Amino acid sequence: MEQTAVVVAVSRSGTHTFSKYNAEAIRLLTGLGVEGDAHMGVTVKHRSRVARDPSRPNLRQVHLIHEELHDDLRAAGFAVRAGDMGENVTTRGVDLLGLPTGTLLRLGDTAVVEITGLRNPCLQIDAFQDGLMKAVLGREENGGLIRKAGVMGIVVSGGEVRPGDSIGVELPAGPHHRLEQV
């Protein structure tokens, strides 16, 4: 039986905290991100990126993590729950890391997020829980780095997103491009 892709939790934080707070709903604003979230905006909001060039486009308006990662981390002894690693949308039943760049995720009735790339976990993750950084990174057979800490996207169509909402996946026209860090 095929598993239905679903939103498990939604989270936001109005300040630059590592973890985000669970909410009953979040509103995605076209071209901006999550209403009331510190990372909302047309240009970059992540502190290290602002320091380098505050005029760069914000390709990290929405952070999504698959709950299957939380399952794996809990099995490895970490205490994590939705929002703890800074994600806005926690999903189940969709292989976020396997999607190509430009994939559209339809969240609920109207919201659409275009996947722009992989989240690059930073050292704050170990400050949250010691050893967590290593747990969300892996190595390919050829030695290449595997980033497991979710994907980033931009809002192409706004709307309200709630836990329990379905997720539709629309792949871009080929050729497909593997996700890179953003």
Proportion of residues in helical segments: 10-25%
CATH topology: M1 Pyruvate Kinase, Domain 3
Q: Describe the sheet with the most strands.
A: 8 strands, mixed
Q: Mind telling me the C-alpha Rg?
A: 15 Å
Shape: globular
Structural class: alpha+beta
Describe this structure in words.
There is one protein chain. The protein is of the alpha+beta class and 182 residues long. It has one domain: M1 Pyruvate Kinase, Domain 3, CATH 2.40.33.20. Helices cover 13% and strands 31% of the residues. It contains four helices and 13 strands. An eight-stranded mixed sheet has the order 2-1-6-5-11-8-7-13. Strands 4-3-12 form a three-stranded antiparallel sheet, with no helix packed on it. A two-stranded antiparallel sheet has the order 9-10. A hairpin with a 5-residue loop joins strand 9 (137-139) and strand 10 (145-147). The longest helix has 9 residues, at 67-75. The chain is globular, with a radius of gyration of 15 Å.
What secondary-structure arrangement, pairings included, does this model have?
Layout: E1 6-12, E2 21-23, E3 26-29, E4 33-34, H1 47-52, E5 62-66, H2 67-75, E6 89-92, E7 104-107, E8 111-118, H3 124-128, H4 132-135, E9 137-139, E10 145-147, E11 151-157, E12 159-161, E13 167-170
Parallel strand pairs: 5-6
Antiparallel strand pairs: 1-2, 1-6, 3-4, 3-12, 5-11, 7-8, 7-13, 8-11, 9-10
Pfam family, one: MOSC
Organism: Planotetraspora thailandica
InterPro entries: MoCF_Sase_C (IPR005302), MOSC_domain (IPR052716), Pyrv_Knase-like_insert_dom_sf (IPR011037)
